[in-house]
């Protein structure tokens, strides 16, 4: 569900970027930016529930070793590319691009939780269940707080920019 909603938000932003140039419709971009912030805030609840199930009921993923290694390669590639693109597109100063790259970074962080759970299940058979739950809980908590901070940052910055845009343009419509 989490990844599905992230894909819907990406599609929503992609439609805008295909139809418009960066900063062509600033008010529309800011509204989409704020919407993505609110959606990420709501999605953080789904993330917290997912982490709760993994920790409290020890519900994790059990995959073959080759699948786990492929998942690790994907996760590290996605995380590296998310950071590179987040920095690269920061220069454009487009709210839609910033939101899309924040979504990619969030998705990569959630993949880290999935990778950790899979690796602990696949390779940590001799590990104590309490230590496994501690690792998952700490990583899940850190990622959840990180996603929460990104969402709040998007909402606060988007709202400030939207208010500034309305003042500068006398509440005109785009």
Largest sheet: none
Beta fraction: under 5%
Assign a percent range to the helix content.
over 70%
Radius of gyration: 19 Å
The global form is elongated
Derived from helix and strand composition plus strand pairing, the structural class reads mainly alpha
Instruction: Write down how many β-strands occur, each being a DSSP E stretch of 2 or more residues.
Output: 0
Order of SSEs, N→C?
HHHHH
Short overview:
With 174 residues, the chain is mostly helical. 82% of the residues lie in helices and 0% in strands. It is built from five helices and no strands.
Features:
mainly alpha, 174 residues
Question: Could you describe the 3D structure shown?
Answer:
This protein is mostly helical and 174 residues long. It is 82% helix and 0% strand. The chain is built from five helices and no strands. The protein has helices spanning 2-19, 26-56, 65-88, 95-123, 129-168.
């Amino acid at each position: 569900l989490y990844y599905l909603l992230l894909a819907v938000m990406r599609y929503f932003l992609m439609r805008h970027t295909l139809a418009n140039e960066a900063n062509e419709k600033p008010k529309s971009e800011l509204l989409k930016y704020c919407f993505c912030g609110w959606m990420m805030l709501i999605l953080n609840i789904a993330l917290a529930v997912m982490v709760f199930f993994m920790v409290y009921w020890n519900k994790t993923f059990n995959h073959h070793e080759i699948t786990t290694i492929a998942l690790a390669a994907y996760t590290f590639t996605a995380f590296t590319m998310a950071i590179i693109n987040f920095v690269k597109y920061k220069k454009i100063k487009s709210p839609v691009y910033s939101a899309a790259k924040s979504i990619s970074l969030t998705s990569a962080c959630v993949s880290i939780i999935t990778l950790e759970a899979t690796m602990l299940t696949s390779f940590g058979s001799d590990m104590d269940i309490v230590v496994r739950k501690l690792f998952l809980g700490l990583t899940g908590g850190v990622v959840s707080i990180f996603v929460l901070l990104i969402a709040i940052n998007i909402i606060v910055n988007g709202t400030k920019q939207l208010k500034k845009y309305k003042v500068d343009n006398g509440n005109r419509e785009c």
